[in-house]
Amino acid sequence: MINKILIINPFGIDDVLFTTPLIRTIKEFSPETFLGYWCNERVSPILLNNPFIDRVFPLGRGDLKKNF
After folding, report:
1. Could you report the per-residue pLDDT of 17-51, keeping only the tens digit for each?
2. In the chain, where are the structural domains located?
3. Euclidean distance between CA atoms 32 and 35, whole angstroms
4. Distance (Å) of CA 62 to CA 1, 53, 66
5. How far apart are CA 59 and CA 65, in angstroms?
């Protein structure tokens, strides 16, 4: 069984909203799985209160280019 999942979505609010049903489905199917979400820091407040996400990793503008 998978015990850790990281969703990577460095884009905007539309993409975050489209992934919301996926987050819920993953946790309902496998509640013990750690679910992280790597997102743009501008949309991170939307995800911080989501009870199905274990940890949010905010990504600042330019961080992706700087680190990779």
Report:
1. 999 999 999 999 999 999 999 999 999 999 999 99
2. 4-67
3. 9
4. 35, 24, 6
5. 11
